[in-house]
Amino acid sequence: MYRLTQIHQRIDERLRLEARKARPDGLEVLRLAALKARAKNALAVLTGRTVVPA
């Protein structure tokens, strides 16, 4: 679970960095957002929280 939390945080950081660029890459933002959602859902499953399908 700790590893998933780290992955989620790193993806979030990369997403924020990309969004701050003068010309962010839209596809990269979408890719990172999808990865972040997958990590968040995996954490929810591990903690027993209800997962809402995307």
Summarize the structure.
With 54 residues, the chain is mainly α.
Describe this structure in words.
The protein is mainly α and 54 residues long. It has one domain (2-47). 76% of the residues lie in helices and 0% in strands. The radius of gyration is 12 Å and the shape is elongated.
Following the backbone from N to C, one meets helices and strands in this order, namely HH
Number of strands: 0
What is the radius of gyration computed over CA atoms, rounded to a whole number of angstroms? 12 Å
Structural class: mainly alpha
Low-confidence stretches: none
| Helical stretch tally | 2
Mean pLDDT: 90
Distance between the termini: 21 Å
Strand proportion: under 5%
Q: Which geometry do the CA atoms define?
A: elongated
Helix content: over 70%
Question: In this structure, how is the largest beta sheet organized?
Answer: none
List the helices and strands and how they pair.
Layout: H1 2-20, H2 26-47
Helix pairs in contact: 1-2
Task: Name some characteristics of this structure.
Transposase; mainly alpha; 54 residues; single chain
